[in-house]
Amino acid sequence: MSGENRSHYFIQNQSLNRISSDFFANHSCIETAKALLGQVLCRRLSPKGPILKGKIVETESYTGAEDEACNTFNGRRTEANEPLFMSAGTCYVYMTYGMYYCFNISSQGLGAGVLLRALEPLEGIDCMQELRAKARKRVDQSNSKPLMLKMLSNGPSKLCMALGINKNNTNTVDITNSDEIWLETGSHVSETDIVSTKRVGISRAGLWADKPFRFYIKDSEFVSQK
DNA sequence: CAACCGATGTGCT
DNA sequence: GCACATCGGTTGA
To answer: Which pLDDT does position A131 carry in this prediction?
Structure first.
């Protein structure tokens, strides 16, 4: 792609209500997890490809070295979790259960970040269906029925599949300054519309397993579980 | 409904 | 080995 084209669509992105690095500079990890609710995660897989958008309806905070459920617990710092130590707003993608990915954004706090757990699909839904179907075929060759809208991205790995996110593309990318993944200001979510619960799938994290670090939009049908 | 379980890579112990 | 920030199909009440 020529520099001219690149700057053209970068400006397009910038002209929308794009969330900047100030957003991440001005919030703690837990504040970031809450403030991301209602915002819109945007994805473009190729320069002229369709733009995929989904409203963030569920997040979890992982606060760093003191958090026994966090990948950086006890100061563990490896090549894989390095994005959590990079500037707030850096994408961190890791593989789980051998075949799925989870998508996080680093936040304020050393080794801290926010896991995105569910999106409400807004734009590019046909493309998301295709991406989900492609991912599912690896497991079940016969199944190609379209999914119900609320099943497209109501889970941390489902949203990665729906947006074509993996460790080779968005990992380490700065979400405040990228042409392929960015955030836009969405609907305002008031404090009374945010539900806090313990995080999902955490079993061996001692007292930290029960901390109310999962946040979701109260009446959303698109969260992973209630 | 819920409970169980297979697929599967990576990083511990 | 074993656990894992999961998903989706199957089994059985």
So the answer is: 95
